Amino acid sequence: MPKILVIDDQPAVCVALTTLFELHGHEVRVAATPDEAMAAVLGDELGAVVQDMNFRQSATSGEEGMELLRRIKAVDPELPVVAMTAFTSIAGAVELIKAGASDYVPKPWDDQKLVATVGNLARLRALEQENARLLAQRGRARHRLAERHDLAGLVYASDAMHEVVSLAVKVAPADVPVLITGPNGTGKELLATIVQANSRRRDRPFVKVNAGALPDELVEAELFGAEPGAFTGATRLRAGRFEEADGGTLFLDEIGTLSLNGQKKLLRVLQTGEYQRLGSSVTRKADVRVLSATNRDLPRAIAEGSFREDLYFRLNVIELTIPALRDRPEDIVSIASHLLDRLAARAAGGERVTLGPRARHALVEHDWPGNVRELENRLTRAALVRKGETIEPHDLGLDAAARASHAPGAAPAAHGAHAASSAPSAPSAERLEIERALVEARGVVAKAAASLGLSRQGLYRRMDRLGIHIERKLK
Q1: Per the domain annotation, does 135 fall within a domain?
Q2: Do 335 and 284 fall into the same domain?
Q3: Is there a contact between 269 and 224 (Cβ–Cβ < 8 Å)?
Q4: Tens digit of pLDDT for each residue in 140-184?
Q5: Positions of the region Disordered (predicted)?
Q6: Which end of the chain has a smaller Cβ tally under 10 Å, C or N?
Q7: pLDDT tens digits, residue range 337-347?
């Protein structure tokens, strides 16, 4: 139990209060003068202070107690202080609270109320100190990790992300395939960059490919290259991605949407390290470390027959799973502040805007189906439409989002760690992104695909998998 400091010049009062608090499990320290009290405040770890307001028999003004209260608050502003005296007025009590007292108790006191008041304040103080210690430990752990490793500018505050990043830098030198999973917009490409930056191949090529954007008929040419004349329009030699990444790292994003034909061709080169350019019979070798990422539940895709099990095990020697943003709320404000700094740096005048308290609360309360990507979009919007220097919830568009989520017939949002990694939550964010792109493109699939960085065929494959029918959605 937290320690209580009792400050009173009357021995009988000190004995009575010591007995009372010790009966309720508190350790008690006693001081008879302001100087003794300050020595205890400076030298001991206290949960709360119960102090008299007068320290001489003839004193009744409370000035001595007020001065001591100010001295205590100057040394430790967060230390709870309960003032006790038989000589004061309502105006004096108000002045005590203004000076920093947590509460005021008249003499003679009510034992039950006094123990409850002081005990609650002391427990709250202990909880705040423990939280501060934990935050400091987390901060030191993050700082040590950032000192030893290249974190590629990643911003986080949560234990969940610290575990993921710690594992990423641990496996980075191992030169084994890594599969990064998590919902859309959580930063899978950035985590892949961290693995590359801390690997033995950090100074070698780092080639990124959006596998979901590869048309089935061009998979082979894109990954392995093509000789002139290998297909219609191939007028010159084309180096493939494996050739470009030789000696370095190849990052295959959206691997879960690669066609079965593309999966077959990829598996062959992963098994043998050999490939042939399209239109060539010359076998080439590739020394490439493969990192891949997906928002799909690949074991479910394997069960459904849309993803090869043998390829899954080739890619998934180590799996790094990034939690959804809603499952690590400690990260939200930190990331938001970082993004606002970045927006200010890009702005012509370099004007920096801040988040108001209501906006911070709204950010933490929002469900973030689009994760960090949605957060960045909303902050960009807010920076443009705000009327003052402080961003408010309506600038972020979160008032409308909250109303929509509570509208009749609205689907309930999934919560919890399991929801973040299960199949229903990941496609829901993906579906929202695709539907928004289709609406903005007025139903023109090619235009929507371009805005998403996909080929038209790649977008059609996603729409088919998610059950999105354009006639129904955009009629």
Answers
A1: no
A2: no
A3: yes
A4: 888 899 999 999 999 998 889 999 999 999 999 999 999 999 999
A5: 404-428
A6: C
A7: 999 988 888 77
pTM above 0.70, yes or no: no
Shared domain for 262 and 334, answered yes or no, is: no
Mean pLDDT, to the nearest integer, of 70-84? 89
Kind of pairing between the strands at 354-355 and 390-391: parallel
- Encode 213-223: b = buried (16+ Cβ within 10 Å), e = exposed: bbbeebbbbbb
The residue written with tokens 């105006």 in the block is 91
Residue 68 within any structural domain of the chain = yes
> HEC string of the chain?
CCCEEEECCCHHHHHHHHHHHHHCCCCEEEECCHHHHHHHHHHCCCCEEEEECCCCCCCCCCHHHHHHHHHHHHHCCCCCEEEEECCCCHHHHHHHHHHCCCEEEECCCCHHHHHHHHHHHHHHHHHHHHHHHHHHHHHHHHHHHHHHCCCCCCCCCCHHHHHHHHHHHHHHHHCCCEEEECCCCCCHHHHHHHHHHCCCCCCCCEEEEEHHHCCHHHHHHHHHEECCCCCCCCCCCEECHHHHCCCCEEEEECHHHCCHHHHHHHHHHHHHCEEECECCCCEEECCCEEEEEECCCHHHHHHHCCCCHHHHHHHCCEEEECCCHHHCCHHHHHHHHHHHHHHHHHCCCCCCCEECHHHHHHHHHCCCCCHHHHHHHHHHHHHHHCCCCEECHHHHCHHHHHHHHCCCCCCCCCCHHHHHHCCCHHHHHHHHHHHHHHHHCCCCHHHHHHHHCCCHHHHHHHHHHHCCCHHHHCC
If asked whether residues 314 and 357 sit together in one domain, one would say no
Per-residue pLDDT tens for 12-41?
Answer: 999 999 999 999 989 999 999 999 999 999
Domain boundaries, position 69: 4-128
**Main-chain dihedrals φ then ψ at residue 28, nearest 5 degrees:** -125, 140
Answer yes or no: is pLDDT of 194 > 60.
Answer: yes
Q: Report the percent of the chain where pLDDT is more than 90.
A: 41
Q: Who contacts 283 (Cβ-Cβ below 8 Å, separation ≥6)? A: 274, 275, 276
The rounded distance, in Å, linking the Cα atoms of 332 and 338 is: 10
Residue with structure tokens 């909250």? 402
- Token pair 């890009």 is found at 346
Closest of 139, 133, 183 to residue 157, by C-alpha: 139
- Domain total of the chain: 4
Are both 191 and 302 inside the same structural domain?
yes
Q: Is 128 a residue whose pLDDT tops 80?
A: no
